[in-house]
Design a protein that fits this description.
With 118 residues, this protein is an all-alpha fold. The protein is built from 4 helices and no strands. Helix 1 runs antiparallel to helix 2 and helix 1 crosses helix 4. The longest helix has 24 residues.
């Protein structure tokens, strides 16, 4: 289910990669052909949070955000899932993982350059 919206391309790519990582986590650890209800709830929650991020286009990667918009328990679960699946995802889909890392680095660079100029 790929939802097209008015979000910037980078946010949409982050959402797609995040959903793919959650699916990989679920498929590997929960041993199902389809996404389990717990992981489906996490995907829906992440979609809502990325779409309604208060930082807008200046939004950093959710893993490195200084003002996370996730509830603490959901954030811990989300970070755990992404960190667990990052290496496996990079092995299975290296181009998407590389784009994800490049986006993360670009965001970190723009944040550091904007904080220096302030």
């Amino acid at each position: 289910m790929n939802i097209q919206s008015n979000e910037p391309v980078r946010q949409q790519r982050e959402l797609d990669i995040t959903k793919a990582m959650i699916r990989l986590y679920c498929k590997t650890l929960h041993r199902g052909a389809i996404v389990c209800p717990e992981c489906e709830v996490l995907i829906d929650y992440v979609e809502k949070r990325i779409a309604s991020c208060r930082l807008g286009e200046a939004k950093p990667n959710c893993l490195v955000c200084e003002t996370p918009c996730y509830q603490p328990a959901k954030r811990l679960h989300f970070v755990h899932v992404l960190r667990w699946s990052m290496r496996k995802f990079a092995w299975r889909q290296p181009i998407k993982a590389l784009k994800f890392k490049i986006d993360c680095l670009r965001r970190c660079e723009t944040e550091s350059s904007s904080s220096v100029s302030s």
